[in-house]
From TrEMBL:
Hydrolase recorded as keyword: yes
UniProt xrefs under Gene3D superfamilies: alpha/beta hydrolase (3.40.50.1820)
This protein's UniProt keywords: Hydrolase
Record-annotated Fungal lipase-type domain positions: 143-182
Pfam families (alphabetical): Lipase_3
UniProt protein name: Fungal lipase-type domain-containing protein
Length: 346
């Protein structure tokens, strides 16, 4: 029997009967719903049942153009949607339509069911090892992004993903940004692999640990530059700074909550006059720098969470448990208590 959460008529944002594309809540809710559509597409395939997925995109006048299928387990991990609004929408709300996407490429996260869990978990491990870029699933998704941008331009394409899918969006978005293509991106509960400093209740202890971490990281970064002269002129954030993806995190979700401290700490370091240290530290990870210093830097890829700019939305509404805090459904609720900040790398 289908989960209630997979049925749009029971769990979807039915209150959004008229989409205003200038409204950030509407854009976030639609993007999250399209990602949920990918989850339900794969569950439809696994259960060999009557399709429950179409209402997740039909309700917002999107058309499913293509399913993205993993070549290892043949699971559906992504989808390409095309926005096909009725002609009356253009007549009634031209301004609102201007901010609408033409295409959305969406990626789901891990499904804890036997038909897909083994492969999904393997990819989760690749994220931990900074090796997602080496997987065939990512290459399939990345090629879809490249082809779509080449066909319709970066201004007409949105990316959206949840959890593992958010990591796919992060890597694809970074790759495109380095080529000068800045795609609008929605990352729901994106993984940030780090010590759980954000869980510490004492603000002074938490801030002290972050300052110590920044000083050590900046010091190792300078040592690495001294050892590798070619890196002295390189600025890994320069090409990415103009890309401002939208990140949606819940502080009760340990998988993504460190993004809160990552960006807030940068602001605090500026306020105490240590901005130069933090600007250097925020571009590096301790693990990668250690490998560089000991001579194994070529083996270490850039961690996904290193990000110069972001539109960060934090859900401050209480969560009953981790499952709810990490869940996708929270992001289209109309009664959320949200804190939003835009962080620009300077």
């Amino acid at each position: 029997m289908a989960w209630e959460r997979e049925v749009f008529g029971l769990s979807g944002p039915l209150h959004l009967t008229n989409i205003d594309w200038n409204n950030s809540h509407h854009r976030r809710s639609v993007a999250a719903s399209l990602v949920e559509g990918v989850y339900v597409l794969e569950r439809d395939r696994q259960e060999k049942r009557q399709a429950l997925a179409p209402p997740w995109w039909d309700f917002f006048h999107f058309k499913l153009v293509r399913k993205l299928v993993d070549d290892a387990d043949f699971a559906i991990f992504g989808a390409i949607y095309e926005y096909k609004p009725p002609s009356s929408h253009f007549n009634d709300s031209i301004v609102s339509i201007d901010r609408s996407p033409r295409y959305v490429i969406a990626f789901r996260g891990t499904i804890t069911k036997p038909d897909s869990f083994t492969r999904d978990f393997e990819l989760d491990v690749h994220i931990i090892r900074n090796g997602l870029h080496q997987t065939s699933r990512f290459e399939i998704g990345m090629q879809a992004v490249r082809n779509m941008v080449a066909s319709v331009g970066d201004k007409n394409v949105w990316l959206a993903g949840h959890s593992l899918g958010a990591a796919m969006v992060m890597l694809a978005g970074k790759t495109m940004a380095k080529m000068g293509n800045f795609l609008e991106a929605f990352l729901f509960n994106p993984p940030f692999l780090s010590a759980p400093i954000e869980k510490i209740k004492d603000k002074k202890v938490k801030h002290g640990l972050r300052i110590a971490g920044s000083v050590i990281t900046a010091g190792l970064a300078l040592a690495a530059k001294g050892k590798n002269p070619r890196s002295r002129s390189e600025d890994p954030f320069a090409a990415l700074s103009a890309w401002t993806p939208s990140l949606f995190v819940n502080p009760a979700d340990h998988i993504c909550s460190e993004y809160v401290g990552y960006f807030e700490h940068r602001k605090k370091m500026e306020e105490i006059g240590a901005g130069a240290i933090e600007r250097l530290a925020t571009q590096h990870s301790l693990g990668g720098l250690f490998m560089s210093v000991v001579g194994r830097g070529a083996e270490v890829a850039e961690p996904l969470h290193l990000l110069p700019s972001a539109n960060l939305t934090v859900n401050l509404s209480p969560s009953n448990d981790f499952k709810q805090a990490h869940g996708l459904h929270q992001w289209w609720r109309p009664d959320l208590n949200l804190k939003c900040n835009i962080y620009k790398f300077k």
